[in-house]
Every structure is written in structure tokens, then in C-alpha cells.
Amino acid sequence: MSTEDPGTRGARGDDDRTVDLSDDFVVLPEQTSDDTDHGWGERADGNDDWLLSQRPPHWD
């Protein structure tokens, strides 16, 4: 007479389990839609050059 549970026959433990650690799984996006120019209702062209030219003198 066997004392082994028939439901666990041939089952492997967690130590034998293969875990896929690839970086392809995305949990959260890098950037949300409201963090974009389009999300703010603006055009896609940037104004970074203008903003950098408008820096106050005490920032240099």
C-alpha cells in the first residue's frame, strides 16, 4: 500500500521548475499616453531649442 497522494504523483517541486526571466515581459509602459505631446493636445514637434534659449541668466 502506497502513502503517496495520487494527485502529486510525478509532480515536480519549485526547485525543478523552469522560470523564464526574459526582459520582453512589459508590466507597465515606459510612457503613458498623457505624458506625450499628443496627450496634452500639442503638436508632435518639439520646442526644446526655444526652451533652452529662454533659460534665465542665473542658470548658466
From TrEMBL:
Biased composition range(s): Basic and acidic residues: 11-20, 35-46
Superkingdom in the source lineage: Bacteria
Region described as Disordered: spans on this chain: 1-60
Protein name: Uncharacterized protein
